[in-house]
Each structure stands twice: as structure tokens, then as C-alpha cells.
Amino acid sequence: MCRVCTAVPVTGEPHVTIGADRGFTFDHVFDLPTPQATVYADCVHNLVEGIFDGFNATVLAYGQTGSGKTYSMGTGFETATVDEEVGIIPRALAHVFNGIDRRREEAKLEGRVEPVFDVSVQFIELYNEEIIDLLTEDRGASKGLRIHEDHKGEIYLQGATAAPVKNAHEIFYPLTPMWKKYAFIHVRWRNDFPLMNFKLLAKLK
Ligand SMILES: Nc1ncnc2c1ncn2[C@@H]1O[C@H](COP(=O)(O)OP(=O)(O)OP(=O)(O)O)[C@@H](O)[C@H]1O
């Protein structure tokens, strides 16, 4: 028997229907040769800029095995990689800390009080429905870890270690192996906002 599995509208709208009734709308489709910088510019750049205006952002990679989640999110933090191949997480980290430096510099030049930022990271792995805190050696300490939503709709990780970090270097090197898992990066702009969350979620299968 022959039947239509995937259908796209002839009008060129960014929509695809899988099977009988599962419809998905999308903003962009990137082909294999698309440079990492283009993916970042089109999908992530504005999200990171937005955290400085008080918005929360989440980036997550989802897809079947071998579809390129690690390549897109994580390339460039473990070994020397050519600039063009650097993935979303290292680009976002550089962007966050450059953005902090720029805002502090601008304030100084304009004679304003310099903003103070606190940045911390949490790393967890979801394995067999269990949440594991990757920043503690004591696996037993991970028991009771929960992901919650508070009354303002903020998602937070209860009980997971939060490590303060001052620059991207501090995140890359000691925590390198963790990047393959999940990273919650909290950027807190003390002067203005109570808490901004920027979440980079990788490797969700
Ligand atoms: N855009 C791309 N350009 C070049 N190579 C790519 C690209 N995307 C993925 N690859 C390569 O394809 C292979 C599989 O990609 P990757 O490991 O990122 O998949 P994955 O979705 O993380 O897989 P898994 O879920 O099994 O961990 C890797 O060798 C990766 O380098």
C-alpha cells in the first residue's frame, strides 16, 4: 500500500505534516553544509542578547541518534577546533561574557554605576529518568534532585550544585566533560533583575 508520510504545503509555508495529522511549523531549516556561525546568528544570537533585557531563554537540541546534536551544540570545547566549527555552547558563553564586559565598559565610559553580574552554572544529566548532579562526586547526593516550576513560571533545579563562574575559561576547562550533558547557566544582573536564566540544554534524546 502506498500512502503519503510527509507533506509540505505547496504554498511554501514553513510547515510540515507527518503522517495523518501531526503538524509542525518551523522558522528555519539548515542543510548539512550550513556554517555553525549562521545557525548561531539565526537561532541563538537574539536569545542571548535578550537575557540582558531580562528575558529567559532556552536552547535545546532534540533528535535521533547521529542527527548532529553534539556537533551543533558542543563542538569546540574539548580540543582545538577551527573557528568555523565551534558550536552553540562555546559561542553562547563567549557572547554572555563579552556582553557583560561591554555593558560594564559602556557604563564606565558614560560615568554610570557599573552593573554587577553573577554567573553560575549547574550541570545535570538525565539518565533513566533519574537526575544526576554532575558537579558533585557523591552520586548519593543527587537523590532528591527535582526540576520545579515556581509561581512565576521559572524553571529551577532544586538541590543541584550551582558553581559561580567569572569567565568562559572557568567553565570550559574544569567542567569540560560535563558539556555533553545539560547545562543551566544563570546570569544574574544584580542591579536590575532578580534572576535571569539562560539555559543551554544539550543532548536530549
Ligand atoms: N552539520 C554537520 N556538519 C558536519 N558534520 C556533522 C554535522 N552534523 C553532524 N555531523 C557529524 O555527524 C556525526 C553524528 O553527529 P553527532 O554526534 O553530533 O550526533 P548526535 O545527535 O549527538 O548523536 P547521539 O544522539 O548518538 O549522541 C558526527 O561525526 C558529527 O561530526
TrEMBL record:
Subcellular localization(s) per the UniProt record: Cytoplasm, Cytoskeleton
Database matches in InterPro entries: Kinesin-like_fam, Kinesin_motor_dom, Kinesin_motor_dom_sf, P-loop_NTPase
Recorded GO MF terms: ATP binding; microtubule binding; microtubule motor activity
SUPFAM superfamilies: P-loop containing nucleoside triphosphate hydrolases (SSF52540)
Domain (Kinesin motor): residue spans on this chain: 1-205
Predominant localisation class: cytoplasm
A Gene Ontology cellular-component term: microtubule associated complex
Domain of life: Eukaryota
GO biological process, one term: spindle elongation
Residues annotated as binding ATP: G63, Q64, T65, G66, S67, G68, K69, T70
Pfam families associated with the record: Kinesin
UniProt KW keywords: ATP-binding, Cytoplasm, Cytoskeleton, Motor protein, Nucleotide-binding
The keyword Cytoplasm is annotated on this UniProt entry: yes
Family: Belongs to the TRAFAC class myosin-kinesin ATPase superfamily. Kinesin family.
Protein's UniProt name: Kinesin motor domain-containing protein
Lineage: Eukaryota, Metazoa, Ecdysozoa, Nematoda, Chromadorea
